[in-house]
Design goal:
repeat, Pectin_lyas_fold, signal, Beta_helix, Right handed beta helix domain-containing protein, 2 domains, mainly beta, Pectate Lyase C-like, eleven-stranded parallel β-sheet
């Protein structure tokens, strides 16, 4: 063990009061003789360790790394299981990449919680949670791609990202790739040049994305090849270029995307010009389904999107089949629901039921494609006039976020126990967002 680490550990054990949680040794037994058996400690930054990375290197499973307000110019890599990394103040603990590093926080171990801090100015991602060694090394994402070549799919199992602000990052704000059994909640993302929140290459995902705000991104939420118990519930996706997409993409493994639940979200005014421009030029769309299959869209409020509220289309060779649009409210979109397919790739079995809507392309979809629909029944296709997307702005120029809610009792709460598998939402209890939320959405100026 390096001398610096020994000195830091000695200082820690001389000044900290351990919290006794059991009578056995720590998971790896590495602290035998240096701390009481089974003890978990709080490592304070900078009081006990000068940097976040130094504190993380000292931490053992069950420990809390608690970070005091300040700007930290480092990329934090967490490879020890069940560590909690938490800021004492969400807006005042800032991990700032200064456009010199790809990632703010990289999590490669299970059971890790990242809470109550801000990550900004990274060339790729604010927070990256992954089981892929290539992704962790910053190899994918150089030009917006995610191809990890012949690397076998390895999942990171169990994670939590909560009360995190991720702003002005070059690709993704919060990025879960090749990860399962996790929760992204109560977080805010803006200024992402690809998407604010991303889940990709997981099957079954068992991931819950809930109660987040994504605005001023190229895309608010994106799920690529994210299949099986993938829940996006109760989020506010307003004032991006595109609100939400769920799609299949050959750049990632585990094709095709299928079986996601998108429920109870406010998805509005997604044609904001003062945002980074995504490579594929998406604009003015609330929800986009591109080659996704067997997804459910339930009780979302989709309003004021200048191209379309919900679009179903196909990739060059992957059909969108069996998507169900149920009990949503569409209002003030140029087209509420539009289906458009390449000639050679027609979707099948897509259907609608119980929605409040005004216009569809093709016309009368609510009647001609009513649920239930036979699985092999061809879905009709049409076209409509689409607005021209304005040029974007550099992600570094996106407006700074307002203060966001704090993690409760951040300084005193103790470490967070991340469950091996999160509790999955019961969609029967997910409500349609109230109309009153549109008043706040209307404050986002659109072009």
């Amino acid at each position: 063990m390096p001398r610096l680490r020994l000195r830091l550990m000695a200082a820690l054990l001389g000044t900290l009061t351990p919290v006794m949680v059991g009578c056995g040794a720590d998971d790896d037994g590495s602290d035998q003789g240096r701390r009481p058996s089974g003890a978990h400690v709080t490592i304070n930054v900078p009081a006990d360790a000068p940097t976040i990375s130094a504190a993380v290197s000292l931490a053992r499973p069950g420990d809390l790394v608690l970070v005091a307000p300040g700007k930290y110019h480092e990329s934090v890599k967490i490879s020890t299981a069940r560590i909690t990394l938490r800021g004492a103040s969400r807006d005042k603990v800032v991990i700032d990449g200064r456009l010199r590093q790809p990632n703010g926080v990289v999590v490669t171990a299970p059971g890790v919680a990242v809470e109550n801090l801000t990550v900004e100015n990274n060339t790729q991602n604010g927070v990256l949670v992954t089981g892929s060694a290539k992704a962790a090394a910053g190899m994918p994402g150089q030009s917006g791609g995610y191809d990890t070549g012949d690397e076998p799919v390895t999942f990171l199992k169990s994670f939590l990202v909560s009360h995190v602000t991720a702003t002005r990052n070059g690709l993704y704000g919060i990025y879960a790739f090749s990860a399962q059994n996790g929760v992204i909640e109560h977080s805010y993302t803006s200024g992402s040049a690809d998407s604010g929140i991303y889940a990709g290459q997981c099957k079954p995902c068992r991931i819950v994305v809930r109660d987040n705000i994504a605005e001023l991104n190229a895309v608010g939420y994106e799920g690529t090849n994210a299949s099986g118990d993938m829940y996006v519930v109760g989020n506010r996706l307003v004032g991006n270029r595109v609100g939400l997409t769920t799609n299949s993409d050959h750049q990632e493994k585990l094709l095709p995307q299928q079986d996601a639940v998108i429920a109870g979200n406010l998805i509005a005014a997604n044609q904001q010009a003062a945002t980074p421009e995504q490579a594929d030029g998406g604009w003015g769309i609330g929800i986009g389904v591109d080659g996704g299959t067997d997804n459910q869209f339930i009780r979302n409020r989709v309003a004021g999107n200048s191209n379309a509220g919900l679009v179903i289309t196909a990739t060059a060779d992957i059909k969108p089949d069996g998507n169900r649009i149920l009990d949503n409210t569409f209002a003030a979109n140029s087209v509420d629901v539009g289906w458009t397919f390449p000639t050679a790739t027609k979707g099948r079995g897509n259907c609608l039921r119980g929605n409040e809507l005004r216009t569809t392309v093709p016309a009368r979809l609510a009647t001609t494609a009513s649920c239930p629909r036979p699985a092999r029944s061809p879905s009709p296709s049409g076209t409509w006039a689409k607005p021209t997307a304005p040029g974007g702005i550099p992600f570094t120029d996106v407006a700074a976020p307002k203060r966001q809610p704090q993690f409760p009792n951040a300084r005193t709460a103790g470490a967070t126990a991340v469950p091996a598998v999160p509790a999955l939402p019961d969609t029967a209890g997910v409500r349609l967002p109230p109309t009153s939320l549109l008043a706040e959405a209307a404050r986002v100026r659109t072009s």
